[in-house]
């Protein structure tokens, strides 16, 4: 409720300013329906676009500090997004206000057919903002995410916005707002990635969860990566901000947890024996947060062994991810084309037209340096008594 009050206070302040300036399109706040987020599906019976909007319910009673905000769901089908958005006035009785929207959830079916037909309107509408996050639903219908747990007083779109902003703590999904997606469409040698959202059920309780990403070729979805695969993709593209590296010991068993404090990735295209090669180097600063083997972490030499294991496993996982993207999905979400464009502009002019074919067969070399700065609170392992 506090968040809604802040939103309404900001809106009232803005409207007062508009009133003082005599603005021609001044609108009473009572005539607005504040949109928190939307879900976009394909109507199975008609093939039309099916839009579900979550709007903030500002009519609830109470008003006390313990009163939580809630939302209302409206669903309508139509031929175009703009037609649906305007026609929703007949359902809400109010014009939709978009400046506080935080989430656009799109079904996989719509995403595979092409995103532009459902998001182009957003870039053109004068009342929308660029900082709305987009998601692809792993559920059959995007609407199922938006209508999750409507028995409790929450605004799910705002929850998704808060969750994706904290994603750097785990690094299993990219953070993509709608203008990031548009930029990728217009950039040379680069394709878009969008986080996946799904319903997680545990002990009869259902909650939304963000993990993994959808891969795009132009505006069409062509595949997905798991949360773990997404982490290594973020390493390649220098977008890793945090998270954990789970390292296996010499026997291939779970051994150590390294918390990532910083990372720097460089992508360098070079010519080797007449062939284009992509050289990737990473330097990752970490903290040792967990030691599972009984022999523990007793000395400096052991620390160097753990760093070596981490480097080997990080290199392998990055290369496995790169090869999968090249051979299975054939879309340059790894920004190799962008690196060639920046570092070898003359080469890029020759390769740009058939970059998709060149990308698939690129030779890639990865070198990783992992540095353990500290071992959290202690350098001593817990010893069990006799």
Describe the structure.
The chain is α/β, with parallel strands linked by helices and 386 residues long. The protein has helices spanning 2-21, 81-87, 89-92, 108-113, 116-124, 142-146, 156-165, 178-186, 227-236, 300-329, 336-343, 345-351, 355-360, and strands at 32-42, 49-57, 70-78, 95-97, 103-107, 133-137, 193-202, 205-217, 220-225, 244-248, 254-272, 275-291, 363-374. The strands form 2 sheets. Strands 1, 2, 3, 4, 5, 6, 7, 8 and 9 form a 9-stranded mixed β-sheet that branches. Strands 10-11-12-13 form a 4-stranded mixed β-sheet, with helices on both faces. The termini are far apart.
Please give a quick description of this structure.
With 386 residues, this protein is of the alpha/beta class. It has 13 helices and 13 strands. The protein is globular.
């Amino acid at each position: 409720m506090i968040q809604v009050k802040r939103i309404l206070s900001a809106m009232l302040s803005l409207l007062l300013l508009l009133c003082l300036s005599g603005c021609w399109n001044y609108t009473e706040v009572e005539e607005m329906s504040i949109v928190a987020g939307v879900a976009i599906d394909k109507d199975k019976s008609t093939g039309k676009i099916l839009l579900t909007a979550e709007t903030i319910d500002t009519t609830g009673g109470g008003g006390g500090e313990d009163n939580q905000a809630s939302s209302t769901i409206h669903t309508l089908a139509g031929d175009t997004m703009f037609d649906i958005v305007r026609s929703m006035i007949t359902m809400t009785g109010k014009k939709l206000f978009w400046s506080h929207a935080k989430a656009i959830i799109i079904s996989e079916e719509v995403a595979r057919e092409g995103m532009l037909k459902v998001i182009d309107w957003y870039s053109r509408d004068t009342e929308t903002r660029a900082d709305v996050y987009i998601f692809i639903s792993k559920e059959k219908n995007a609407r199922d995410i938006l209508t999750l747990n409507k028995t409790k007083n929450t605004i799910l779109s705002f929850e998704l916005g808060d969750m994706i902003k904290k994603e750097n703590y785990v690094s299993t999904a990219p953070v993509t707002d709608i203008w990031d997606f548009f930029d990728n469409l217009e950039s040379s040698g680069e394709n878009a990635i969008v986080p996946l959202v799904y319903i997680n059920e545990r002990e009869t309780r259902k909650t939304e969860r963000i993990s993994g990403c959808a891969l795009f070729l132009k505006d069409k979805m062509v595949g997905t990566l798991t949360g773990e695969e997404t982490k290594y993709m973020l390493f390649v593209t220098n977008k890793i901000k945090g998270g954990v590296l789970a390292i296996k010991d010499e026997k291939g068993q779970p051994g150590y947890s390294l918390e990532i404090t910083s990372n720097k990735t460089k992508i360098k295209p070079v010519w080797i024996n007449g062939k284009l090669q992509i050289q990737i180097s990473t330097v990752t600063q970490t903290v040792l947060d967990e030691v599972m083997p009984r022999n523990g972490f007793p000395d400096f030499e052991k620390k160097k062994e753990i760093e070596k294991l981490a480097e080997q496993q990080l290199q392998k996982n990055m290369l496995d991810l790169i090869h999968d993207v090249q051979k299975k999905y054939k879309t340059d979400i790894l920004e190799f084309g962008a690196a060639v464009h920046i570092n070898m502009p003359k080469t890029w002019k020759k390769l740009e037209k058939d970059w998709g074919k060149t990308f698939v067969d690129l030779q890639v070399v990865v070198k990783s340096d992992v540095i353990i700065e500290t071992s959290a609170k202690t350098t001593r392992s817990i010893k069990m008594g006799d």
